[in-house]
Amino acid sequence: MINYERYSSVKPEEYGKKGVMYYLCRKPSDKKIIPIISRIKNKKVLEVGFGTGYYTTTFIKNKCKVTGVDINPHLGKNLRIKIIKAKADKFSNHLKNEKFDVVASFWMTEYLDENQLEKYLKESKKVLKKEGKLITTIISNRGLGWFYVILAMFIRKIRKYGYKNEAIRYKIEKSGFKKINLIKLNSWLGVPWAYLIIAK
Q1: Most CB within 10 Å of its CB: which of 65, 123, 128, 181?
Q2: What's the predicted TM-score (pTM) here?
Q3: For 69-73, what is the mean pLDDT?
């Protein structure tokens, strides 16, 4: 994951600092994300790129058995979950054929180029149970999503990626998922900027 490794020296208490884009884009998106994941109870969940556990806590409260995958596992040191250090595009071999009801990831795929995104989707499918589902977010390359990616590159020198609706659907289907629901995530201004994907 390009640029995600920059968090290797960041302390958990420093990781959660919120900028303008959080309030403009991510916080409004939570109005759709949180209600959906709040319905997941007593399930076996694999969360890829969990950070300090912002969304993880919802799964824990709902008595889910959570395993976390992150290349910066120190960020989740205060979470009471099983943690595996691995990249998003290469984690299945660390799980010893373990299967999950849900694979979840939020705001991690923005660091994945096309090849890495495809591998992440295939890895997710590989570790899901037969009736399991993938819940993930992907930045759009249109609207504020395009602006978000450009802003990260020119102001913060961080490489991020956005994708077209059609490209996202194609990559998910190619990874073996049959039922795909792309939910538009809008910014505070009502302008689309990302997608919440639920796939089985």
Answers
A1: 123
A2: 0.94
A3: 93
